[in-house]
From TrEMBL:
This protein's name: TRZ/ATZ family hydrolase
UniProt keywords, alphabetically: Hydrolase
Organism taxonomic ancestry: Bacteria, Pseudomonadati, Pseudomonadota, Betaproteobacteria, Burkholderiales
Xref: InterPro entries: Amidohydro-rel (IPR006680), Metal-dep_hydrolase_composite (IPR011059), Metal_Hydrolase (IPR032466), MTA/SAH_deaminase (IPR050287)
Record flagged with keyword Hydrolase: yes
A Pfam family annotated for this UniProt entry: Amidohydro_1
Length: 436
């Protein structure tokens, strides 16, 4: 057997389930695809054009950022500490009103894509205007993406009314129908910004294209109160009544969903995207993620846009989600390491319907793979590589990123602080570890 690339790793976490960690394994890559995962001692018999030796690294599938607004990278840092409506009305909406254009969306997405890929994110699901230009920026930065045909109940530089938004979305489906790197979702903004008539058109469009619906839902308490007042029911109950819920529905945030709404999502087989940084920074509340997981709802991770985060660091987001989730349900046994790393990879791929191609390291999938260095002082000693990847490592430790088998990012390895070299740090920690 001959392959193009062998990555010999300290550990491989394939994410075909939530627990498996394979020590001393190698990932085999050929023609942009994963062709096998084998014990490294067996990889010696395989010919390769290139062997990448990473004995201190853990290999994972690339992270999936299941909810973001990439062009908002150009608004990073605006209006910190303002209440949500002040933030939107005095900062974000006026800036967007001034800047909104295809160029703004392309260049913002290119910058966002560069930060994402450096952070180990190899696929992103975007929700914004001028999505053809968003896709151009993200793919140019090296990512795969889902982009949204947005539908919102007020005019923008892109469209004047629901029918024009739907027409723009139709054009997106046509534009990307055979694209290997871009898929299209229908993106109604939120239950409070799209009326019933608009949501019925959204449902029909999604059905026609067998597409996923990507929507902010139950983000704030005032959204619930508004829905009860205007429609006499909670937002997810209304979406169910209008026929939007199925296994292709992506409910972003889902912070204030009550048990009846969660039951509707679970029954439909829908997914949710958890964006804890955004929920905390905008003081939206605490999403009941442990409860969702227990009910069998697929959970993905998202960064939201940087205007409410203010970074696209999916590993950091997932670490925060794990700790926050435990505190919210007051149970350390929930939101386990495997649950969280699964949400950041396969959970995202499933939510977006990309799991036929990405989300795990297994034969036949795209070789979208990241390597995280666990050999530095910030992660040593290693007792539990998966746990230390989640709780100790940071995005700066993600040193190698492959997309379609091509190495797109290679960072310098930290040399450590003198006089404690990397080698000495490993020696000291190993010595004490061996005395247990
Ligand atoms: Zn959002």
């Amino acid at each position: 057997m001959r392959v193009q690339t062998i990555i010999e790793a300290g550990w491989v976490m394939p994410m075909t389930d939530k627990e498996t960690v394979l020590p001393h394994h190698s990932v085999l890559i050929n023609d942009g695809k994963i062709v096998g995962v084998v014990p490294t001692e067996e990889a010696g018999a395989i010919q390769a054009d290139e062997i990448v030796r990473l004995p201190d690294h853990i290999i994972l599938p690339g992270f999936v950022n299941a909810h973001t607004h990439a062009p908002m990278h150009l608004l990073r840092g605006m209006g910190a500490d303002l209440p949500l409506m002040d933030w939107l009305q005095t900062k974000i909406w006026p800036a967007e009103g001034k800047l909104m254009s295809p160029e703004f969306c392309y260049e913002g997405s290119l910058v966002a894509g560069a930060e994402m890929i450096e952070s180990g994110i190899t696929c992103a699901s975007d929700h914004y205007f001028f999505s053809e230009d968003v896709a151009r920026g993200l793919t140019q930065a090296g990512l795969k993406c889902s982009v949204s045909g947005i539908v919102i109940g007020f005019p923008s530089a892109m469209a004047k009314n629901t029918d024009e938004y739907i027409a723009c979305a139709e054009a997106l489906f046509e534009r990307f129908q055979d694209n290997r790197h871009v898929r299209v979702t229908v993106g109604p903004h939120a239950p409070y910004t799209v009326d019933d008539e608009g949501l019925i058109k959204v449902r029909e469009l999604a059905l026609k294209h067998n597409a996923y619906i990507h929507m902010h839902v139950d983000e704030t308490q005032s959204e619930i109160e508004g829905s009860l007042k205007q429609y006499g029911m909670r937002p997810i109950q209304r979406l169910e009544k209008l026929g939007l819920l199925n296994e292709r529905f992506i409910s972003v945030h889902t912070v204030h969903a009550d048990d009846s709404e969660l039951a509707l999502l679970a029954r439909a087989g829908a997914s949710t995207v958890h964006c804890p940084c955004s929920n905390l920074k905008l003081a939206s509340g605490f999403s009941p993620v442990a409860k969702m997981m227990a009910m069998g709802i697929n959970v993905a991770m998202g960064t939201d846009g940087v205007a409410s985060n203010d970074k696209v660091d999916l590993l950091g987001e997932t670490r925060l989600a794990a700790m926050l989730g435990k505190a919210v349900c007051q149970d350390t046994t929930k939101m386990k390491v495997g649950d969280m790393l699964y949400a950041a990879t396969m959970g995202g791929a499933k939510a977006l319907g990309w799991n036929d191609r990405i989300g795990s390291i297994e034969k036949g999938k795209d070789a979208d793979v990241i390597a995280i260095d666990l050999g530095n002082v910030d992660t040593l000693p290693i007792y539990d590589p998966a746990s230390q990847l989640l709780y100790s490592a940071g995005r700066e430790d993600i040193t190698h990123i492959w997309v379609d088998g091509k190495l797109v990012v290679k960072k310098q390895q930290s040399v450590g602080l003198q006089p404690l070299t990397r080698e000495n740090a490993q020696k000291i920690t190993k010595t004490w570890q061996n005395r247990i």
